[in-house]
Amino acid sequence: WGNDVIEFASDSVDYINGEYDTDIIQFVTTEALDFTASTLAYIDNVEIFELGAGDQDIKLDGTNIADFVTGTNSVADNATYQGKKLLVIDSTAGSDSLELVGFTDTGDTTTINGGSDSFSVYYDSTNDVYVATDLTATLS
């Protein structure tokens, strides 16, 4: 319990529950993960996806975010997005891509947990959820 870092490999993970505080899932292999088309894993109480070693192609919609981020959080330094359901997608290595289904670009940016990197903020009004990412997201 607490600030957890959980390594994700889609062929060996069924359920992830971060529980309390700020929890990170690290993606560490090259793979395409379409969370909108199938249930790759049941994920609860996670605030940050860290796209690490390898190249990850991630596809998400607002329903996914509502399932993954089951409570509000304060990881965004921009006060507008504190206390919101917000998932951070942080590309730390490799050549990653992100597709967000049903989201719009808010035009805002934020840093995360006092860091210096800038993250663009996207919003899904149907599910009232946010994504902050350092990738240029494809919106569909």
Quick structural gist:
5% of the residues lie in helices and 42% in strands. With 140 residues, the protein is mainly beta.
Secondary structure topology:
Blueprint: E1 5-8, E2 15-17, E3 24-27, E4 31-34, E5 42-44, E6 48-51, E7 56-61, H1 62-68, E8 86-91, E9 97-101, E10 104-110, E11 119-124, E12 129-133, E13 138-139
Average of per-residue pLDDT values: 86
* Number of discrete helical segments: 1
| Fraction of residues in helix | under 10%
Quaternary structure classification: single chain
Q: Which stretches are low in confidence, meaning pLDDT under 50 for 5 or more residues running?
A: none
- SSE succession: EEEEEEEHEEEEEE
Give a count of the beta strands, DSSP E runs of length 2 or more: 13
Strand order of the largest sheet: 1-3-6-8-12-11-10
* Cα radius of gyration in angstroms: 13 Å
In terms of DSSP E residues, the strand content is: 35-45%
* Major sheet summary line: 7 strands, mixed
- Helix/strand-derived category reads mainly beta
C-alpha end-to-end distance: 36 Å
Shape: globular
Index terms:
140 residues, mainly beta, seven-stranded mixed sheet, four-stranded parallel sheet, 1 helix, globular
Descriptive account of the structure:
The protein is 5% helix and 42% strand. The chain is mainly β and 140 residues long. It has a 7-stranded mixed beta sheet with strand order 1-3-6-8-12-11-10.
